Amino acid sequence: MTLGSPPFKNHSPSPGRGKSRRLFPLLIVLAVLVLLLVLLSVLLGVFLRERASVSPSSSGFSFSLSDKENGGSQAVPIPSGGLTVWKNELYSTNAILVDNTSSLVIGVKDAYEKIYPASLTKVMTAVLALEYFTDLSEEIVISPEMFAYITAQNASVAGFSPGESVKVRDLLYGLLLPSGADAAIALATRVAGSEKDFAVLMNQKAAAIGMENTRFVTCTGLHDDGHYSTCYDLMLLFRYALGNAAFRRIVSTDSYTTSPTPAHPKGIYLSHTLFKALKSSGRNNNYIAGGKTGYTLEAHQCLVSFAEIESRELILVTVGAGQTDRNRQEHILDALYVYATCAR
């Protein structure tokens, strides 16, 4: 007799015992179902915790707070589709590509690393000016005091003269096409009284847009160690700016002539640095619709651009190109390469 088994009795089983034997398989099934429910509840808890670790940004893009790109400390976006992480494919050290139509991040390369934005800063300067002035025909007198500073900094200028009265519209074209520091400072001082006070407005706007890793010090993008951003934040800014019809029109313009003034009776012919760089690159531009270039010794070649490809609007931000050869338009080559891959 097996230890623990009931003593054998030679009689037919009772009806109750037969019923319990028939219920035994059912009890096993029920136990299995209970275990499955417990397992599912555990998996659901894990899933919800994972979802809790993903916080949506104010722009509609999402990024993980735990996943790391290339072992860095920055977050990596998690779109519902595939994500390309560039390594050696680009000249630029930092980049991000976004489908502005679906709000999906498509490609990144150290997109959350601190960088210097150079003249991409002027996108924010333009945004604040466009939201401040209700009449773009309003005129601003160019302060003579700024010229010693921008000359000492060897900053790019649109070509306005000291004391010249210039329309806001012309200053915006001078700001965004030839990347004029003279236009930037004129707009900033008219809006806020000084460049320092204008930077306060820039940082307030950056926070409102969701640029959490950005700090502005200048309206021009001339180098300052405390003036920084990320490709992700600059993408948020450019995406926001493209929502303004006037901004979109300006950054898509190849060239523009300002209104005549006594200082410039025929106006000033302004050429877009982006489209000039495209032409000098020797490549056909089949994709880029507009954008803004930037350059400093610390930031190297920078570019924010947008393109229309297969009914989608794409936004690309690149920083850090041209480190070995400034005259080689590597930021342009990167943009053409990235957009071409999207068109395949």
Helices and strands in order, then pairings?
Blueprint: H1 15-52, E1 54-56, E2 62-68, E3 75-77, E4 84-85, E5 94-99, E6 104-109, H2 122-132, E7 139-141, H3 146-152, E8 165-167, H4 168-176, H5 181-192, H6 195-209, H7 231-241, H8 245-251, E9 255-257, E10 269-271, H9 273-280, E11 288-296, E12 300-309, E13 312-321, H10 330-343
Parallel strand pairs: 4-6
Antiparallel strand pairs: 1-2, 2-3, 5-6, 5-13, 7-8, 9-10, 11-12, 12-13
Q: How many E strands?
A: 13
* Contiguous helical run count: 10
The fraction of residues in strands falls at 15-25%
Which stretches are poorly predicted, pLDDT < 50 over at least 5 residues? 1-13, 47-80
How far apart, in Å, are the first and last alpha carbons?
78 Å
Structural class: alpha+beta
Number of domains: 1
The CATH class, by name, is Alpha Beta
Helix proportion: 25-40%
Cα Rg: 30 Å
CATH topology: Beta-lactamase
Mean pLDDT: 84
CATH architecture: 3-Layer(aba) Sandwich
What does this structure look like?
This protein has 344 residues and is of the alpha+beta class. The protein has one domain (84-343): Beta-lactamase, CATH 3.40.710. The protein contains ten helices and 13 strands. It has helices spanning 15-52, 122-132, 146-152, 168-176, 181-192, 195-209, 231-241, 245-251, 273-280, 330-343; strands at residues 54-56, 62-68, 75-77, 84-85, 94-99, 104-109, 139-141, 165-167, 255-257, 269-271, 288-296, 300-309, 312-321. A six-stranded mixed sheet has the order 4-6-5-13-12-11, with helices on both faces. A three-stranded antiparallel sheet has the order 1-2-3. A two-stranded antiparallel sheet has the order 7-8. The longest helix is centred in the N-terminal third of the chain and has 38 residues, at 15-52. It starts with 14 loop residues before the first helix and ends with a helix. The relative contact order is 0.14.
